[in-house]
Amino acid sequence: MIADKSSRAFRPEHIVHICFAIVFVFSTLLTWREAQVLKSSYETDQRAWLAQLASGLEHQLQQSIDEMYFFRNMLHHALDEPLVTDKSREALAAFAVKRHHPLWKININSERSMPLNGISDEALQSFPLLSRADPKRLDDELTAVLEMSYILQFNNPVNDLHYRLWYISRAGFYLSSVQDDKQETVKSYSTAIDRPYFLNAHPQSNPDRGMRWSEIYHSLYNEGEVVTVTLPVDHDNYWYGELAMDFSTEAIQRYLRQTLPTWQAGHVMLFDRKHKPLAISDGKKMSEQGINSAELAEIFNKRPDEKSGQIRSGTRFITWVRLQHFDGMMINVQTLDEGMRGETGRVTLVLVLMWGLFTLVLLACHQAIFRMIRRLLSLQETLKWRANYDGLTRQLNRSAFFEQARKQSAFCERHQLPLSLIQLDLDHFKSVNDTWGHHAGDVVLTHAASVIARTLRKEDVLGRVGGEEFCVVLPDTSLAEAVEIAERIRCKLASKEVLINAMKTLKVTASLGVSSSDEQQDYKIENLQSIADERLYRAKQAGRNCVSSGG
C-alpha cells in the first residue's frame, strides 16, 4: 500500500514537473541575484556621479569663498598696519570734502582701482547699525578698503561662479566689483544693509563670525534670482562691515546643465536650507520635478553626519548629497522610464528579456517532455495490459492469472482463510468453431467471460488459462460457497443464448470443477487447480453443463 502511494507520488510526470520547477526557480533566483547586483551598481553609479557633480560645484564655490577669505585676511592686515601713501591721503582728503554730499564717489585712480561709493553723514542717521563715530577707525577702514580696490579690479566674473563681490561698510560706503550708476548708490547701499544677510552679520546674530548663506531673493538690477554668501569683517572686537558675494541662480543652473553627463537621464536640483529650489538643471518648474515637500523634508531631516544617501518613492529613485560650502543639498530625481533609458536600465532590460526567453524555452521543453512522458506511460500501460490480459476476453492471461492467484493463496494461508478454485470449460466449443467458424467461437468466449466476470466479487481472480478454459480463485471462500458461485455461473451461462449472426443464436453451457483449501488442507494453486481439473472432467463425463465438487 505504502509502495503504491510512493509510486503514485513519484510518477515520471511528477518528477518532470519537479525537475523543471527546480530549474525555473534556480534561473529565477539567479536572474534576481543579477538584478540585485545591477540595482546596487545603478544606485552606486547614481550616487557617484551626483557626488562628482556636487564636487565640481563645490570646487567652483570653494574658489569664490577662498577669494572672499583672502580679501578678509587682507583687510585684517591692512587694519593692523594701515599703509599711508599719497593716494591714501588723497582719498581721505576727498572723503573729508564729500562726506556731507548726499551721494559721493571716490576714485583716486580709475585705471588701477575700483571706486568707493557712499552716502552722507546726514543720510547715515537713518540706519541704526551704521556709524562714523570713531574717526581713527574710519580713516583706517577707508585706507584698507582702498588697498582692496587695487586688487578687486582684477576680478573676472567670466572665470568665477559668482558675478559680484561687495564690501559693505557700517561707515556708510561700499566697494563693489561691479560698478553702478551714481543714482543707484543709495538704492544699492540701503537695500544691501536692510537685507537679512547684513542684519544677521551682527555679533549677536552671528557669534561665531562664520560664513552665512542668504535665502533666494530678486536682484535690484534685473539680474534674476540671486543668493548671497556673507563673511563679517571684525578687528579689535569691532564690527567694521562684511564681505558679500552674489551668485546668480541662472549661472548655477547653467553650470549644472553644462556639467551634467550626456548619458545621464533625469535632472539635478540645488536646494537651500529652507527647502527652496536654487537651481534646476532642466529649467522646468518645481511642480514638474517629481518630488514633493514630504520627501524633501525626509531628506533634510537626515542626520548632519550623513553626507549622501538615497530614497525610493514609487517608481522614482532620489539621490542626494549634502554640500560642504553651501548651506543646502543637491538632489537628483530619476524616474523608472529615465532609468531604463540608461546603460544599467538597458542591461536590466536585456536580462529580463533573456529570463523571459529562457522561461518560454523552458516551458516549451517542459510541455514537449511532459507529452512524451505521457505517451511513453500510455504505451507502457498498453504493453503491460497486453502482457497480462487476454485481448479477446479482456481477462487475465495464464501467467498473470497464476501470479495473482499465488498472491491470494499466500494471503489466505497467512491469515488462515479458506481459498477455493473453480475450473471451467465451455461445452462443445470445438464444434462451434468447426461449424460456425472462429468468429462465432470468439463471440462465445467473449460472452462467457463477461457472464463469469459479472457473477464474481471484486476480490475474486478470473483468468483465461486455455482455449475455452477459465479459472477462478475465490479468497476467503469455503467449498460450499464456491459450489454456489459455480452453480450461479453455470445457470447464467445456460440461461442465455448468444447471437452468432442475424440468423443464428447458440446456447452456451459449461462444465465446472471446484476445489478448496479447507477440503484439501493445501493452499498451493497448482494442486488446487489439478484437483478442480479432475472434477471438471468428471462433470464432462456426467453429461456436461454441471458442477463437480467431490469424489
From TrEMBL:
PROSITE patterns: GGDEF (PS50887). Its cofactor is Mg(2+). Gene3D superfamilies: 3.30.70.270. It is a multi-pass membrane protein. The chain crosses the membrane at residues 14-32, 349-370. It is found in: Cell inner membrane. Catalyzes the synthesis of cyclic-di-GMP (c-di-GMP) via the condensation of 2 GTP molecules. Cyclic-di-GMP is a second messenger which controls cell surface-associated traits in bacteria. Involved in the regulation of cellulose production. PANTHER family: DIGUANYLATE CYCLASE DGCQ-RELATED, REGULATORY COMPONENTS OF SENSORY TRANSDUCTION SYSTEM. This is diguanylate cyclase. It comes from Erwinia sorbitola. The lineage of its organism: Bacteria, Pseudomonadati, Pseudomonadota, Gammaproteobacteria, Enterobacterales.
